[in-house]
Amino acid sequence: MAPLRVEGPFDLALTTARFRAFGSDRACLWHEDGLLRVVGGREVRIEAAPGGVDVKPLDAETEPVVRKLLGLDFDLGGFYTWAAGHPRLGSLAARFAGFRPALTPDPFEALVTSITAQQVSVRSAVAIRNRLIERFGERVARAWAFPARERLAAASPDELTAVGFSGRKAQYVVGLARSDLDLEVLAGLPDEDVKARLVAVRGLGEWTADWFLARHLARPRAWPAGDLALRKAVAALYGDVDVRAAGARFEPFQNLSAHYLLAQFLTP
DNA sequence: TACCAGGTAAAAA
DNA sequence: TTTTTACATGGT
User: CA-based diameter of chain A, in Å?
Assistant: First the structure.
């Protein structure tokens, strides 16, 4: 296997914990101490190695996807230096050293995943999403490719309710797939413009838009203030404060701060 | 068995 | 304009 160097501390198991902490994620499958992911129709295996990770196959197509998937482009060193001056967050940073936000490399997958997670528990969302993947995705070796936008655009809402979607969420997903929203252009827009474009689509609210900024576009200042788990984490550390306003406390590392606040839910 | 869970849109007030 | 309600599954 070819090595991919990772700068600074890095803990692969902790970084990928969210792909198994609430049920086994079919599209990011943890198997025999490594992560399996379909990239461009090929199965890619990622496992820990001294100084970074081993990736097979590693080439011009897979490397940028793996970098996104493992959150390798976050400024973790800068975050740790900053966090050292903030007692409560600093202790979280030390406790979860080497943790990076695992990103969703594909924008359509990121949005559909958020729709499945709206309102219901994460475990419910994972169970329903896995059935969606097995019904509409494609299997490559042991891994599964998340369903393509064109495939879900061709589906009927009834086919989605059959795998556990509510009637309304089935409409959201099919409607999004069939919409004229250009998902690739969003990466070139500032945060507020991205949110405005997403929220204009039926089924995508502010919570979904914030997580898209955080976990797909890796925007440093993304802060999903409406997230119930993040609200609980903030309350546990800082008391009964306004969560939206509390985001200013973490400037300019809101995204990393949110992920470290939520990291405590990843370990038993 | 109820009730809650990492929301959203639409109806009602 | 602000507040309430329906939504549907999985876990406890």
Answer: 53
The 3-state DSSP composition of chain A as helix, strand, coil percent (nearest 5) reads 50, 15, 35
* Cβ contact A170 with chain B strand, < 7 A: no
Q: Is residue A203 part of a domain?
A: no
* A229 falls within a domain: no
Q: Is residue A99 part of a domain?
A: no
The gap between A1 CA and B7 C1' (Å) is 42
Q: Is the minimum distance from the CB of A179 to strand C below 7 Å?
A: no
Residue A268, pLDDT score = 76
Instruction: State pTM to two decimals.
Output: 0.97
Q: Is the model's pLDDT at A267 over the cut of 70?
A: yes
Q: Which domain holds residue A8?
A: 4-73
Of A126, A124, A102, whose CA–CA distance to A37 is shortest? A102
Q: Are strands A34-39 and A42-49 parallel, antiparallel or unpaired?
A: antiparallel
Q: Say yes or no: Cβ of A167 under 7 A from any atom of strand C.
A: yes
Q: How far is the CA of A169 from the C1' of C9 (A)?
A: 12
Quick one: which residue's CA is nearest to B5's C1'?
A121
Determine the 3-state secondary structure of A176 from DSSP.
helix
The nucleotide minimizing the C1' distance to residue A123's CA is: C10
Q: How many domains does chain A have?
A: 2
- How far in angstroms lies nucleotide C10's C1' from the CA of residue A126? 10
Residue A33's pLDDT is 96
Q: Is residue A259 part of a domain?
A: no
